[in-house]
Specification:
Elements: E1 2-8, E2 14-23, E3 26-32, H1 38-59, H2 62-83, E4 85-93, E5 97-104, E6 109-115, E7 119-129, E8 132-142, E9 150-155, H3 164-178
Antiparallel strand pairs: 1-2, 2-3, 3-4, 4-5, 5-6, 7-8, 8-9
């Protein structure tokens, strides 16, 4: 079973949630954000290069133009490799655990696995950020010395930042799996 729904992030930008049920014991959720806009990249690049050209005209120093080109290219490469996430996925396997993955625009992937015996619960938490309240899905980890206490909170979907309606859908599905453990 596979569903694909459109939602928005906390800033109102479009994201999509794809839900896959591999079996009654395993579900996968993938939140995807739009690809890098080539128009935006061109606008930023042109602005930086125009400012560099204006400085070059005033100073007649060619190092300014070379530096602007190098800084722009390096900045774009760093942004694509370390910042711009294409999609984040969460795989919940009842008896095994939870796997969280982030795929970056450059193709780089990061993956984290949490064993089921370390998970206390998955909850929707709220945080105050500037002048608004945002919601996020997180995994509560058990404290090894005291099983009823929480040792750590691991936030999910940190880059895509889906709104509450999307988080509720993922939360309910995760609870169906976790409640049968």
């Amino acid at each position: 079973m596979m569903e694909d729904e459109a939602f928005t992030d906390i800033n109102g930008k479009a994201i999509s949630l794809e839900c896959q049920s591999h079996s009654g014991l395993c579900r996968e959720f993938t939140v995807s954000v739009p690809k890098v806009s080539i128009g935006k990249v061109l606008v930023y690049t042109c602005c930086v290069w125009l400012v560099a050209y204006a400085v070059f005209c005033l100073t007649e120093n060619t190092a300014v133009l070379s530096s602007a080109i190098i800084v722009t290219l390096v900045g774009m490469m760093l942004h694509i490799h370390f910042v711009k996430v294409d999609h984040e996925s969460l795989i919940v396997i009842r008896s095994l655990g939870i796997q969280m993955s982030s795929s970056y625009a450059s193709g780089r992937e990061t993956t984290t696995f949490i064993e089921m015996n370390k998970i206390k619960d998955i909850v929707i938490n709220e945080a105050i950020h500037m002048h608004r309240i945002i919601y996020y899905l997180c995994v509560l980890l058990k404290d090894p010395s005291e099983p009823e206490a929480v040792s750590r909170v691991v936030p999910l979907f940190q880059s895509s930042k889906p709104r509450l309606n999307c988080l509720v859908k993922v939360y309910k599905s995760c609870q169906e799996i976790l409640s049968t453990c």
